[in-house]
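Dear all,

This email documents one entry for the complex benchmark we are building for the journal club exercise. For each entry we list the sequence lines for every component of the assembly. Then comes the predicted three-dimensional structure of the complex as a token string, followed by one or two observations. Please use this as the template for your own entries, and keep the labels exactly as they appear.
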Amino acid sequence: MKTYKIGIIGCGRIGSLLEEDPLRGKPCTHSGGFSALSNVKLTAGCDIDETRLKKFGKQWNIKNLYTDYHEMLSENELDVLCIATWTNQHASMALDGIRAGVKGIFCEKPIDVDLKLARKLVQTCERKNIPLLINHERRWDAYYQRAHKLIQAGKIGKIKTIIGNTLSWKPSALPVSEYGGGPLFHDGTHLIDLFLYFGGPIEWVSGNETRPKGIQYIEEMACAMIGFKSGAMGFIEGGGARNYFNFELDIQGSEGRILIGNSGRQLFVTRKSKRFKGFQELEEIAFPEPKRYETPFIGGARNMIKSIQNGKPDSSSGKDALKALEIIYTIYKSAQQNGKRLKAK
Ligand SMILES: NC(=O)c1ccc[n+]([C@@H]2O[C@H](COP(=O)([O-])OP(=O)(O)OC[C@H]3O[C@@H](n4cnc5c(N)ncnc54)[C@H](O)[C@@H]3O)[C@@H](O)[C@H]2O)c1
């Protein structure tokens, strides 16, 4: 059996450090996810922060440590390049990885800050048949996969509306040029990706935002009405300066409803009302729990290897993530034109 060699750029929180959080389900990092597979060897790591790099080397028993990722790429014949650095470096690092001959790229979300560079990366990967997967990790979460299966099987009928929110605290005044955006960009990318996963292609958006420091700084809150090609409607809300983090989707169909998010999952189906004669109402039934649950970091890592074996991305592709990025930027553009309805690319 072939052993796939993995190198990671970025030994920070999502690359490695979050394994220290006692509350998170494990593994919860890329190092942990790839290390959990028997046909994979975590071979090399790179970080410009030497303290983090040393800690990473010790934790995963890696000797090939670098502060310059170009060196890591030239000295190790990597099968997979995993990119867990800051968003404004994702696409350029991935393109360098392709030049160095990696067979697949597993990259953190959002795909990049720069739309043009993100498009170039997706086109390059397609042209060279290099699978590019972006870590919209709920795509590998068995609960979300189960919800998707229920929808595909018609359990809640035809989707009519999707309401989603990712609510969080007030962000600092960070520059758009470097960070891309605020809550709609960083956490909202997961939500938009799931809107596309559950609801299909998006036709138009109408945005609204609060950007207290001006358009060169990231938003505090952004929301949008969304029109799906299917005719279904959506509403998305990102941020909003709350004292808590919440992430959830309310998917309402002609025959039922699925609520799924950080607080759990619920399934409702249409039943004859016990309260009003001649009415139909929603009744909660058991959400069909998966028999086995493993964190999406294992699923994502396994999917990366499968994608290399098949020569194409299996799920959560760069192309999917590019669509999410295009929609986020169209929402901002619409908000800056007083909510003008704009066609999604
Ligand atoms: N999928 C998720 O749910 C999720 C969660 C957290 C973060 N993220 C994403 O992961 C990425 C990293 O976020 P984080 O919270 O881990 O940040 P972090 O700052 O903790 O880690 C990033 C690491 O990259 C290193 N780095 C920066 N530039 C580098 C370079 N040129 N070469 C080598 N190393 C370099 C930094 O020193 C740092 O240690 C971001 O794109 C973020 O959006 C995703």
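Observations: The mean pLDDT is 97. The chain has eleven helices and 15 strands.
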